[in-house]
Design goal:
Strand 1 and strand 2 form a beta hairpin. The longest helix has 18 residues. The chain is of the alpha+beta class. Helix 3 runs antiparallel to helix 6 and helix 6 packs across helix 9. Helix content is 36%, strand content 17%. It is elongated, with a radius of gyration of 22 Å. The structure holds iron/sulfur cluster, FE3-S4 cluster and FE2/S2 (inorganic) cluster (FES). The site of FE3-S4 cluster has 12 residues, from helix 8 and helix 9.
């Protein structure tokens, strides 16, 4: 089926912008990125849209369609009514560079704040064998394609720029969980988790999990277990008894 799709695309840059309406041909089996490329090829050669793999693996084409964070290359046109106007806007949580392209360097800065993988100092390569079951959880988290849709949707920063310095976001809280659950990592990241990386700001709304194109259970498998570890440390009865006795 070929039809005329109606798109409302945000055009502008860091100084401001507005939505513009377009009518573009759409064909059966196409994704939103195909239609944007046709728009670029036929009407707006200067439209900025970032993409790379067109296979849902590079994480470059993140934007918002009808206000929902999505990968442009993995969203089929067929999920929308052909008569509806599709609104395509840049990710709201990050500064716009131009049109649909945002500056996601906030995420790179957060990545650098997480201490790297730390195996035991005296362990020589090949000395340790891991069971698959031991690395299952870490492997789930390693499916992340760094599209930052979860970072974009989380309300802690989406409408609260002021929270950014104190919040790593679901993707990087999950990175801490990945290292914490890795059988070979010996660093203790729990004390910084709550305050420095902002786990305490997450109130488990699960919006991050809802938008993850890799289907990673960010909230249930990474954030909630980390919250439990923080609570165990704080409220462990033995630790509590030790503190009480030492105060006497
Ligand atoms: Fe994207 Fe999912 Fe990774 Fe978040 S966890 S950056 S939504 S792939
Ligand atoms: Fe944000 Fe996900 Fe927590 S959306 S509030 S990090 S559960
Ligand atoms: Fe690579 Fe969409 S272009 S994920």
């Amino acid at each position: 089926m070929t039809y005329t799709a109606r798109l409302r695309v945000w055009r502008g840059d860091a100084t401001g912008g507005a939505s513009a309406d377009y009518e573009v041909e759409a064909n059966e089996g196409e994704v939103v990125l195909d239609v944007l490329h046709r728009l670029q090829a036929t009407q707006t050669p200067d439209l900025a849209v970032r993409w790379n793999c067109k296979a849902g693996k590079c994480g470059s084409c993140s934007a918002e369609i009808n206000g929902r964070p999505r990968l442009l290359c993995m969203t089929r046109m067929s999920v929308f009514d052909p008569a509806e106007v599709l609104t395509v806007t840049p990710m709201r949580a990050f500064p716009v560079i131009r049109d649909l392209v945002t500056d996601v360097s906030f995420n790179y800065a957060k990545a650098r704040e997480i201490p790297s993988f730390t195996p035991p100092a005296d362990l020589a390569p090949g000395e340790y064998r891991m069971q698959q079951i031991d690395v299952e959880r870490s492997q789930e988290f390693r499916k992340c394609i760094e599209c930052y849709l979860c970072q974009d949707t989380c309300h802690v920063v989406r409408d609260h720029e002021e929270n950014k310095p104190a919040f790593a976001g679901p993707r990087y809280l999950m990175r801490v969980a990945e290292l914490e659950m890795h059988p070979l990592d010996v660093a203790d990241r729990v004390p910084e988790m709550q305050d420095e990386h902002g786990l305490g700001l997450c109130n488990i709304t699960k919006c991050c999990t809802d938008v993850c194109p890799e289907g990673i259970k960010i909230t249930d498998n990474a954030l909630i277990p980390m919250k439990e570890r923080v609570a165990d440390r704080r409220y462990d009865p033995l630790v509590w008894l030790g503190r009480t006795i030492s105060r006497r």
